[in-house]
Design goal:
Layout (H helix, E strand, L loop, with lengths): L8 E3 L2 H24 L3 H22 L2 E4 L3 E5 L3 E6 L5 E4 L2 E6 L2 E9 L2 H9 L9 H19 L8 E4 L1 H20 L1
Antiparallel strand pairs: 1-2, 2-3, 3-4, 4-8, 5-6, 6-7
Helix pairs in contact: 1-2, 2-5
């Protein structure tokens, strides 16, 4: 759990963040090499492809989070954000990822997900799951959401707002256009 203030809680996948950091560092080293040694249109094409892979890494591994605040619940998915006031949240559960129910709508939140190994252990029932398993972490997040629903459900008002992740989509589009131009001009 990360917290910017005592009133908001952020939940995310730590293993995704670690993998993302490793990929981003490798990408930065590749970009640095291209800037220092390979200043041609082919180098620009490769740099754009590496940049696209880095944007995809950010979108896939860093971006998905679940944020609980007194005003609303924010689900940051890969390319969309859902801001749900507590008065609209009717429940939460976990299948392979966290699902938040808002009336007839279900919003998936890949920021909280189950590891298949833990699901198999639970199904078989043999070995006990550790206290830090993905299932116990997901259950903790569901409990926190239910607590926030009970505590802030009457106070919050508003509608569910869904927005696209514009900066990420704009950067990916710009890199794709530059890569296409570099491929055509070389």
């Amino acid at each position: 759990m990360k917290s910017k203030s005592p009133e908001s809680e952020h939940y995310l996948s730590a293993s995704n963040r670690i993998t993302g950091v490793v990929i981003m560092v490798i990408g930065l080293i590749g970009l640095l090499d291209i800037v220092l040694e390979w200043r041609t249109l082919s180098g620009l094409l490769v740099a754009c492809i590496i940049g696209l892979l880095m944007v995809l890494t950010y979108v896939g591994l860093f971006r998905p989070t679940v944020t609980l605040s007194p005003e609303h619940l924010v689900l940051r998915n890969h390319v969309r954000d859902h801001v749900i006031p507590w008065s609209k949240v009717t429940g939460a559960d976990v299948t392979d990822t966290l699902r938040v129910h808002a009336g007839d709508n279900r919003f998936r939140a890949p920021g909280v997900q189950l590891v298949m190994r833990d699901l198999r252990k639970q199904r078989v029932g043999g070995r006990k799951l550790s206290a830090d398993s993905s299932i116990s972490r997901a259950d903790f997040v569901v409990d926190r959401i239910e607590t926030h629903m009970a505590q802030y459900g009457e106070q919050s008002e508003g509608q569910v707002v869904t927005r696209w992740a514009r900066p990420e989509l704009i950067i990916a589009g710009a890199l794709a256009v530059v890569a296409l131009l570099a491929a055509v001009l070389r």
